[in-house]
Amino acid sequence: MRAFPLSRRRLSTALSFALLVALSLTFGASAALAQADSTSANLSGFVRDPQGAVVPGANVTARNATTGLTRTATTNDEGFYQLTNLSPGAYDLTVEAPNFKRSVIQALTVTVGQRADLDVALEIGQITDEVTVTGASTELIETSKTNVSNTIDQARIQSLPINQRDYINFTLTTSTVTRDNGRPIGPAPTSGLNFGGQRGRSNLVQVDGADNTDNSVNAARSTVSQEAVQEFQVVTNSFAPEFGRTAGGVVNVVTKGGTNDVRGNVFGFIRHKSIQARNAFAPIIDGDPNKKPPFTRAQYGATIGGPLDRDRTFAFFAFEQRKRQESGFFTSDVVGLLTSSATIPVIPGINPIARTFTRITAAQAGFINTLVGSGVPANICAARAYGFFAASGGNTGLTGSNPLTSPNDGSVCPAITPITGPTTAVGPRFLLTGAPVPISVNAFRPLLNLDRVFPISEDTSFASVRGDHKINEDNHLTMRFGFNPSDITGIQVESQNQSLGQNDFSRTGIQTIRDTSFVTTLTSTLSDSVVNEARFSFSSRRATFRSQNGQATAFNISGAAFTGRELFSPVIRTENRYQYT
Fold it and tell me: What is the pTM for the complete model shown?
């Protein structure tokens, strides 16, 4: 057997890991307090008698109203109790002490990330007697809260309308959050959210305590249906240590789990062109101004959850499907048949390589020949630039492809000024109105009147299953698996990349994503003051983005026309992420 020497770096890493494990076990209480906020809540306070004196040795039990799972603590000599790692939801809180009546607070609701304080006053009497208070009349306060946050609860998720059922957009109900200019889909997506003016790529999205952002562009990944979300916390400032990896904001999501009751739902949503108005900006189809372009959008799914072993083991499953068949359109103007061509011969110092521009109109060819025939260097330079526009625009308008080649061939002609300069043969009116100079020559107006409809389609699925198991009174295990395949074609580019305000077909993209995630959490109560939470997650993301016309050349003139393939394509990425906490 061959022995491999242990390098100093590996030894340092191993010792650091061993020290981290030892510290986690030794100081588990403080670690648990930090971890608890990411997926659960804490409840603490003092137990007092009618005169306000503390009651040591009182038993405090929180029982989850839907699962029956309990968490118990005993007040110390100062009458203080603390219940950590409570799953968000409604609880019945019971406080018992000798010579005092049992106190029961029903339907006490805690939310994700909450560190609530609740003092309980006991009445003198027999322990068999009971004083019951409803949670609705009990106010929870957070005296130790330091972050600025808001909770999007189940009531808002169920009741508020949301486009495409994208639950992350409920974050916009927070006053300091706005929509980001960057889109959440495409070659370089973002989270789509601005927190206090920060970039959309500066945010953190967590699901069940696991990082749910793309490692490359920090976009929010989507691996669960809206129906699988119980609630989420939006943290905008003064982050706790567990959220210290972002400069923007935090969206901290907790998914639903099964309960002692079997529950589920079936839902569906559909939009079809037959039941909605015609897009006022859509082109006329087949000569019929009333004919509607294709449009169908359907979202449907189901959930079911319940007990596998009552008060012990639970499961929850959610599935959602989103399908779209829609239409995009762009406009261009080619006056006349694209059957002509024009050639600019080799002219030393001006046109080093002979250029032939094909698929242009007779008027376009005549205009180019007139400029070249003048023999004026400025006109010949303008003819070169104009020819590239004409040949590119015609092909783009009819086929969605852009064969434009770079004019950087050693010519002394400037790349843009021959066509935009105020004293050139073509002039600025070409870009502003599409009319070349002289105005009497109706040669070419780029991307203005030739209407074309291109398809937009989507097939996206969300599937997730979660299991919760009480190993014993001190150890609880949670596991969740999610799978999100998505195929989208016809993705339209950003507004700054549009051709005269319209999306050119060649600038639309095809996106394919396969997103898989798995997270498991073991919560262990080691003593009344020590709770440890261990979490492992694995996620895999395969994302590709490509243009409709492959490797065609992109050609941009800011503020006028952007044609050819999407600049950021192709994109081919595979990301595998492992997390241990």
Answer: 0.72
